Amino acid sequence: MRVAARSALDTAARSTKPPRYKCGISKACPEKHFAFKMASGAANVVGPKICLEDNVLMSGVKNNVGRGINVALANGKTGEVLDTKYFDMWGGDVAPFIEFLKSIQDGTIVLMGTYDDGATKLNDEARRLIAELGSTSITSLGFRDNWVFCGGKGIKTKSPFEQHIKNNKDTNKYEGWPEVVEMEGCIPQKQD
């Protein structure tokens, strides 16, 4: 009997590792919220990563990220992935990005992360459309800055979900690039 009790205790002691929450965030989200975690790219080497409700939407491993601004769209009511795309803001054209931003439907969750350079080709119209999704940092996003943002189409306020690190040769972690920015949180589910 005693041996069985000891082995049960050993098993209990081994299984006291901390709980794992969706997307690996630090705490559980309340009911009617979606868990998310995201990171910008690291220099021009490691692509950004975007996770929503334990589903990695974009990453280097999935091979669906690229230089510029990486965007994932999700249904604000269900959390279902609607689209993932990236737009090259160094060597590409801003026009397809503007058309994409204009096509986003009301109630859509919009997650964005930069990789390498997300600002060179941005113009005032693109910045205004991103600001309408709740961004406050997009107006000052510059060459090789790192930025992650989560907002929504039809949002009436500024999003609390935004991180921005300026490219500054005196403080950059990597030669020519600032350190990675990471962010996690709980997005309120869109109510009817």
From TrEMBL:
Record GO terms (molecular function): carbohydrate binding
InterPro entries, per database record: FAM3, ILEI/PANDER_dom, ILEI_FAM3C
GO cellular component, as recorded: extracellular region
UniProt superkingdom: Eukaryota
Record domain ILEI/PANDER: where: 67-154
Location of this chain's protein in the cell: Secreted
Main location: secreted
Cited Pfam families: ILEI (PF15711)
Keywords annotated in UniProt: Disulfide bond, Lectin, Secreted, Signal
Family per similarity comment: Belongs to the FAM3 family.
The protein, known as: Protein FAM3C isoform X3
Lineage, uppermost ranks: Eukaryota, Metazoa, Chordata, Craniata, Vertebrata
